[in-house]
Amino acid sequence: MDILELRERILKGEDLHTEFKERITDNEDLAKSIVGFANTDGGQIILGVSDDGDIIGVENVDETIRRIDDVAYNRCEPPISVIIETVIDNDKTVIIINVPKGDQRPYRTSSGNYYIRSANRFRLASREELLRLFQATESIYYDETTIYKATLKDLDNDAFRLFMKEYMNIEVSEEMLINYMKNLKILSKDEKPTLAGILFLVQILNSLFQQLKWLEHIFRVLIFLHHHWTKRKSQVEFLKL
């Protein structure tokens, strides 16, 4: 966002997708705003602007950005990935927090409250609204759900490369590994394993295990046939004597 876009947005005032904040008063209040936008349709929190649209600016910008990131990750459940921008207008820094519509709704604050955005304000979701959010989540692909407690190390990269080579005829280099995993929804955008990734690689390992068992079975049959044929051949040669 540039200065002109910022000024135009401020002139339009607060609405369903826009909230002004002079400063972060407390972490719970910021978490409420982030959760509310994520549970509704996404939106922007413009920090350093009064409710009347006056640009106040933000002090300690770097510290504020770290605090925003901490709140989004540790004070929202599940964690929410936000995109943070800064715009300088007349030597005053404004921070724009872009909150996407969440794909793991409903979200709540760490204190257990579910919020939604209604017109130009946030409020607690009613029981019916909360049920609708849960019902809406059922239409989302659960296999793309991020497993936040898992890491890339939990995935078997060698098994993934073997799958790509054997079934898709693609040699995956170390540099392209992450990109391929993201494209196949094995990793989320923030490089965390998804449910699909965990299940997918388990299935690969099981498949390979079953193949090995089948090969072992074939090997045993071949050995049996070899011994049987050798014995049969010996008997025939004995009869010729």
TrEMBL record:
Gene Ontology MF, one: DNA binding
Keyword Cell membrane assigned: no
Presence of the UniProt keyword Transmembrane in the record: no
Span of domain Schlafen AlbA-2: 14-121
Stored Gene3D superfamilies: Schlafen, AAA domain
Keyword annotations from UniProtKB, A to Z: DNA-binding
InterPro entries in the record: Schlafen_AlbA_2_dom (IPR007421), Schlafen_AlbA_2_dom_sf (IPR038461)
Name of the protein in question: DNA-binding domain-containing protein
Native organism: Candidatus Kryptonium thompsonii
Lineage, broadest ranks: Bacteria, Pseudomonadati, Candidatus Kryptoniota, Candidatus Kryptonium
